[in-house]
Amino acid sequence: MNKTTDLLIIGGGPAGMSATESATELGLAVTVIDEQGAPGGQFLRQPPATFSVGRWLEGNAYTKGKNLLKRAQQSPHTHWLMNTTVAGILPGNPGDPHRFKVVVDSDKGSATLAAHSVLVAAGCYDLPVVFPGWNTPGVMAAGGVQAFIKSQQFVPGEKFVLAGSHPLQLIIADQIVQAGGAVAAVLFSQSRSRVLQLIRQPGVAWRHADKLIQTLGILRRLKQAGVPVRFNQTVTAAMGAARLDYVETAAVDAGGQLSSQAQEPIECDRLGVCFSFLTSAELPRQAGADCTWNARRGGWIVNHDEWMSSSIPGLFVAGETTGVAGSDVAMEEGKLAALGCALHGNRITAVDADALSRPIRRKLKHLNVFADALSRLSWPGDEFFDQLMTGESTLCKCEEISVAHLRQLLQQNPSVSTSSSAKLLSRAGMGLCQGRYCQYSLIRLLAQVRGIPAAEAGGFTARFPSKPLPISNLVDMSD
Amino acid sequence: MLLWVTDMARDTSSRIRRGQAITLKVDDNEVTGFEGETIATVLLAAGITTFNHTPDGRPRGPYCNMGTCFECQVKMAPNAGQDHRWVRACMAPARDGMDIQTGVSRVRLPGREMKTGRDR
Q1: Any chain A CB within 8 A of the CB of B11?
Q2: Any chain A CB within 8 A of the CB of B113?
């Protein structure tokens, strides 16, 4: 294993692959680390090498990414470190030519790598939405359902319900049906006109005609398959003792208010929750990079300059970590970050970097218009989630702490008004997921109970290791 | 508990060829999977939905399917007779001869009970 490298990229998805391609072209030695067994990220989650899958991820939406994946995998200049988790980034002494020490862990144990620059392209994960029964076996992040289909060629249920506000759930419903599954309903919390507004956005539609044509095709196919797509409705509870039996639903008015009137429950054994995403920003946060909280764009957004450099010189970010905007934006940001790394390492002149960056910046400008419109139309608002988060719901799933219990603790301890102090008080955020699945809801609860803006509640301190690992691996680390 | 292998959830279209058939011991049953499948896929295809129990006794199964939520943990020994350890079923590939325990209760370490008490 190469222990030192010019550029260490964390995440082999669209941003990471694109950065790798550009950086190796610029002459940098690159190592890419990813937890999965093969590059592609969640967007192009590959089938296992032992499978042979004809017509994998057909459709225009995947063509560009699949071409990039093919080129990236054939590149002789990239060192891929797969099935490997990054436990932490230690920024070290700025004078050190390989200042960044990155601790990695795999089934071979833990090790430290050194790099001149680090690019965090760690992507995002589905926003965990807290409601009664959200931890019942059968309830999943919609992205997790999709990964079973994309990668494992496996339909994880007999009768699906998808509930959310993000158009991605239409694509997932379509993929379930095409793989032979049955979808009982797709529920959008917002109105039909709000979902269709995206298609009619002036200036957006003509530039992104391929995406819109795809959406219309999906709606037609779902109709043919008899899948009801309902608007102004959402799931309010997942019911079942040992496993999901049915979901309770409620109407949502134009202002995002849930109706208290009970609706007919929907029988299903798998619910996919598809509202929004949170960035995987733990590593830059743990390294000390400045971030800004923006729930709609993915929670913690890593601040960056025009070369995708974070507030720590040499630590770069690209893709969803800079605000969730999808794979097209991620690929362009990856290219830009590669130029930034080359510039940082004096591998390219400022004039050349500037010239090379110009077409990328032009593309990004257009793509971001679409990404921002998508984000605005699909975000139901913090107050929408507040209504789902009833007292009986589990707020911290790892430590099993209910919303009501935490609310009571906050009332008994009026001085507690930050995530970190609420964590010390309650253990919320101390479990195996390290707060990834309660951070957003805890911030919302603090905002509600204390009447403060989310930014004031702040986040949990991101600590080493970023994911749990056996302490024996760290003890055994030779260096 | 009666277990059966169902292909209902595996996409069986002709464009897909899976890896070689493998056999795992899951609790006290033999379960068939295919090389390349994750433990999560093998278990769900066998009709198992409870992967572990929380310290308070609640059933849990896969949620994120990408290694971040830790809800799908099961106890795994590479071969029968070896020590079991917790693994994320969505990240760990199933291998022939593996011995899996599902539904095991995660323990809360002593001293982790809060003085403030816990609901339920």
Answers
A1: yes
A2: no
> Which residues of A are less than 8 Å from B112 in CB distance?
427
Count CB neighbours of A457 within 10 A.
23
- CB atoms closer than 10 angstroms to residue A178: 15
The whole-chain average pLDDT of chain A stands at 94
Rounded CA-CA distance A329/A313 in Å is 23
- Which residues of A fall within a CB distance of 8 Å from B116? 409, 425-426
CA distance A140 to B61: 9
Task: Provide the terminal-to-terminal Cα distance of chain B, rounded to the nearest Å.
Answer: 29
Q: CB-CB: which of A137, A141, A147 is closest to B61?
A: A137
**pLDDT per residue over A431-458, tens digit each?**
999 999 999 999 999 999 999 999 899 9
The neighbour count for residue B115, using CB atoms within 10 Å, is 4
Q: Which of B32, B48, B69 to mutate to test the interface with A (most CBs of A within 10 A)?
A: B69
* A41-56 residue pLDDT tens: 999 999 999 999 999 9
- Report how far residue A306's alpha carbon sits from residue B91's, in angstroms, rounded to the nearest whole number: 36
Burial (CB count <10 Å: 0-12, 13-18, 19+), residue A349: exposed
DSSP H helical segments within A248-349, as ranges? 282-287, 327-344
Is A258:A189 a contact under the CB 8 Å cutoff?
A: no
Predicted confidence band of residue B110 (pLDDT cuts 50, 70, 90): low
CA A292/CA A231 separation, integer angstroms: 32
C-alpha dist (Å) from residue A278 to A60, A139, A344, A358: 26, 18, 29, 29
Asked if B93 is an interface residue toward chain A (Cβ–Cβ < 8 A), one would say: yes
pLDDT, tens digit, 9 for 90 and up, residues A232-289: 999 999 999 999 999 999 999 999 999 988 899 999 999 999 999 999 999 999 999 9
Q: Which of A13, A151, A28 is nearest to A79 (CA)?
A: A28
Side-chain-side CA neighbours of A131 within 13 Å: the count stands at 23
Residue range A328-351: mean pLDDT, rounded: 97
Q: How far apart are CA A256 and CA A473, in angstroms?
A: 48
**How many residues are recorded in chain A?**
479
Domains of chain B: 19-106 (3.10.20.440)
